[in-house]
Design a protein that fits this description.
30% of the residues lie in helices and 28% in strands. It is built from 13 helices and 25 strands. The longest helix is centred in the last third of the chain and has 25 residues.
């Protein structure tokens, strides 16, 4: 790669969790990154409080899973309760997952962000510029020139690609154009984060109170933190609801005793999706591309999946292993996933936000009846596999996340991703092939011995001889090994596998 006329390969706008994860993924792949953030320090209070097993697998890939775990705890049961406190439905806490980690985690965002900032600070190909504002960009066929303003005045950065991870009010999204698709779900809620002590007797589950008089959420945060969310009623103002006396009265019925309120803010919970995620060499990710109500705990998770999807594709393009057309598969793959989770969250929100008492009674009866039939009235959390994009559509397992087998316990525990490395894998029951840019292994390989039974089981269940797994750990396709290699190369060069 020629570097002379470029300050970096990729300019990342915004160093929240998504921007920081994307920066680290790119730098670990040998790309030069300049990452900026308008703030000079990490926001000191929690915002997101949940991530799932797939995101912990991403932290494993970044090498920081253990450090992130210090700021997280296992997700508890999730209960939906009626106005009188009786149980409507319980979503049990998940155990182990296909990712080789616990199903979900409640976490403290400032701690997580500090782990990611410390990570990128130690990566030699990253330059982080804090307290720097993004003002705009122009692009041509070769790259992007961004205008920035820092503490010492105006700056100009020349990059091959620009990624806007700059949040819900994204300037990069505005520059790309295309507007937003609005799901017409817009509800104001008071969010209260408190630090707790062992003397504070809080519920042992996350709880959604489906009370038409005041829909309420009570959930864990990271260790030592708890959150309440209270829906605002008609006529209530943010100014009135953030009054300390009002907050104390809302929390008092939970019987926790004195707590220290660390954060109080009114947010509008809504579902929005950008119509255009890419314009030439400018791309958006995270909240800049999609905004999710919090009821399913998938807002930050969706942004992290964007980062994982984008990183390997940018690497392939920038290292001349793939055509620029590969980047068109980013929105094609990620938008349906994001929309599915937004729609799930809105569906959960509509259940919770019912304010008409008669409708609430019917809802409660329907939920109890569904549970009695053994059919909880919520769709599965996981979206359907990719059907378009860089996948060999129609082949068994294509577009789904490939599982990560785990072997041993304690100090002898091994996770397969650590053994296999970050590149794409071709795993086969036959003889391993030689293919540039792919790690190709036969199941008979000694390296795979700890995981052989689980891998063989997957291949048998999918009635296939081989599987090609992308760097983001989604299945490209399965079938004949040589045909998979040919289809993979075609996808890299055209954005289409067949």
């Amino acid at each position: 790669m020629e570097h002379e006329e470029f300050d970096c390969d990729v300019l990342v706008i915004g160093l929240g969790p998504v921007g920081a994860a994307l920066t680290a993924l790119l730098a670990q792949r040998g790309l030069r990154v300049i990452a900026i953030d308008k703030d000079s320090t990490i926001y000191p209070l929690p915002r997101a409080v949940h991530f799932d097993h797939e995101i912990m697998r991403l932290f494993q890939q970044l090498g920081v899973a253990e450090e992130v775990g210090r700021h997280a705890r296992d997700v508890p049961d999730y209960e939906f309760r009626a106005a009188d406190g009786t149980l409507l439905m319980k979503l049990p806490r998940g155990g182990e997952s296909p990712s080789g980690w616990r199903a979900g985690y409640m976490f403290h965002q400032p701690g997580l962000e500090q782990v990611l900032r410390d990570l990128i600070a130690g990566l030699p190909s990253v330059e982080a510029r804090l307290g720097v504002l993004f003002e705009g960009f122009v692009q041509d066929t070769q790259g992007v020139t961004a205008s920035l303003v820092g503490p010492e005045g105006p700056q100009s950065v020349r990059a091959r690609y620009l990624i806007g991870c700059d949040g819900a009010s994204s300037l990069v999204r505005g520059a790309i154009g295309g507007g937003l698709y609005d799901y017409k779900f817009d509800e104001p809620w008071l969010v209260v984060d408190v630090s707790t002590s062992d003397a504070c007797r809080l519920p042992t589950s996350n709880i959604q109170v489906c009370d038409p008089a005041r829909p309420t959420t009570c959930v864990f945060g990271g260790p030592g933190w708890h959150r309440w969310e209270f829906m605002l009623l008609p006529g209530e103002t943010p100014e009135a609801m953030t009054n300390d006396a009002v907050i104390e009265a809302l929390i008092r019925p939970w019987g926790c005793g004195p707590v220290k309120v660390e954060r109080k803010a009114v947010y509008r919970f809504h579902g929005l999706v950008a119509n255009r995620w890419r314009s030439g060499r400018a791309i958006i990710a995270g909240d800049a591309a999609h905004q999710t109500p919090p009821f399913a705990g998938q807002g930050m998770c969706s942004g992290m999946r964007d980062a994982a999807n984008l990183a390997w594709k940018l690497e392939a393009v920038l290292k001349s292993q793939a055509d620029d057309a590969l980047l068109d598969t980013y929105q094609a793959e990620r938008e349906p996933h994001s929309r599915a989770l937004i729609e799930l969250a809105i569906g959960m929100g509509r259940i919770v936000c019912t304010r008409d008492p008669a409708q609430a009674d019917r809802r409660d009866a329907d939920m109890r009846a569904a549970v009695a039939r053994g059919a909880p009235p919520l769709p599965p959390m996981r979206p359907s596999p990719f059907t378009t994009g860089c996948v060999l559509a129609g082949s068994p397992g294509a577009g789904e996340m490939f599982p990560q087998p785990v072997s041993g316990q304690g100090e002898s525990l091994q996770r397969m991703d650590d053994i296999m490395g970050p590149e794409p894998w071709l795993l086969t029951r036959g003889r391993a092939l030689k293919a540039v840019g792919l790690r190709t292994l036969s199941l008979s390989c000694e390296r795979l011995a700890p995981f052989r039974r689980d891998l063989a089981k997957w291949l048998v269940e999918h009635s296939t001889e081989a599987v090609l797994v992308r760097p983001d750990r989604y299945v490209f396709g399965s079938g004949d090994a040589r045909s998979l290699v040919d289809a993979w190369r075609k996808c890299l060069q055209t954005g289409l596998a067949a």
